[in-house]
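pipeline stage [seq->struct] | target=Molybdenum ABC transporter ATP-binding protein | organism=Geomobilimonas luticola | residues=351
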Amino acid sequence: MELRMAVSKSYGPFRLDADFSVQGERIGIFGESGSGKSTLIGMLAGLVEPDDGTICLEGETLFSRGEGVAIPTERRRIAMVFQQPSLFPHLSVRNNLLYGYNRCASQHRRVEFDPLVQVLKLEGLLDRGVNNLSGGEQQRVAIGRAVMASPRLLVMDEPLSALDDDLKFQIIPYLTRVCGQFGIPFIFISHSLLEMRLMTDTVLMFDKGRLVEQGSADELARRRMGLGQVGYINLLRLGRPVGSNGLHTFAWGGGKLLLSAAPKSEAGLYELSSRDIILFKQHPEAISARNLLKGLVVATFESGSKTGVELACGSDRLIAEVVHEAAAELDIRPGGELYAAIKASAFRPLG
Ligand SMILES: Nc1ncnc2c1ncn2[C@@H]1O[C@H](COP(=O)(O)OP(=O)(O)OP(=O)(O)O)[C@@H](O)[C@H]1O
C-alpha cells in the first residue's frame, strides 16, 4: 500500500498540517490525544473535507483541492473500525458480517465468509444477536464486518482502547492474523506505544497537528528512552514453555529462559524492562538470578543519565540500561561480550 497525503485542516486554533508519503502493509499513526490522528484519517476516508491539499492512495487521487477531485467515501473502499464497535443492533452476528460483504461489488470480493469466521473464531456466535456479546466479541465482529467488505485499506481508530488489558492482548493476534491472511493493508491508530510495537511496522508520529517522526515503532520506543523519559520495554514473544519445574522454561537467545509467571496465551508475550537487566563483564561465579545470558554488544546509545546497551543473544535482541559510570567501568562498546542476569520474576506476561 502506498499513501501520499499533503493536507491541511483547521478547527479554530487547531491546525493539522500533514505532508508525508508512506509505504507498507502495517502502518501506525501515533500521538497524544488531540494531536490530529482522527482528523487525518477522517480526511483519508472522506469523512472530513481537507481545507487544502491532495490525497493519493495506490496512485489514485482521492482528493485534490487544486484539481477539484473528491471521491465519495463509499467509492474509496476504505473500511473503518472504531473504539466502539457500533454494530447493527437489530442484526445477528452473521448478518452484521454479511452487511459488508453484500455491499462489496463482486469484482472486488477477496474475503469469503467461512475462512473469515474461522480466523476470528466466530463460529459459535453466528446466530446470536450482537447486544449480549462481550466487548471483545463485539469488537471481533466489527473487525469481521469491516474485513468482509474486502477493503483496499482498513483503518482502525483506537480499536483496542475500550478493552481491558487481557482482552486487548486476546484481540491483537486476531487482528494481525485476519489482515495478514486476507492481504488487507491497515492503518492502526493509537496513543499506546506498546500497541504500535505489536501491531505495526512503520509509524507516523503526530504532535499538535504536525508529523514529527516517521520510522519503526521500536526506533520510536528507543528514541523516547533516549530522551530519558522511560526505560525501554523489551517485548519477548516466547511462545509455549518447553518445560515447567516450578518455573516456566522457554527456548530463547540460543539458550533457555526461566520465568516465574505463566504465559497468558499461546503467543507467550512478555515484557521486560531494560532496568531489570544486570550486566557483567565476566561470567559471575554464583548469582541468585535464574537467567544468565551471554550477549554481544551490537550498539550503545544515550538514555538521559543512563546508557542503553543493545545485546545480541543468539539471534534474539535485548536492550539493557546501566548508569554511565557502570558503562565506563565495564568498558561497554560494540563488539564486546557481556553477561546479562535477569530474575525469573522480572518478566511480565502480556498475552
Ligand atoms: N468536528 C470538529 N469540530 C471542531 N473541532 C474539532 C473537530 N474534530 C476535531 N476537532 C479538534 O481538532 C483537534 C484534533 O482532534 P482529533 O480528534 O483529530 O485528535 P486525536 O489525535 O484523534 O485525539 P484522540 O486521541 O483524543 O482521539 C482537537 O483539538 C479537537 O478538539
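stage status: PASS
auto-comment: The first strand starts at residue 2 and ends at 11. The chain has a mean pLDDT of 92.
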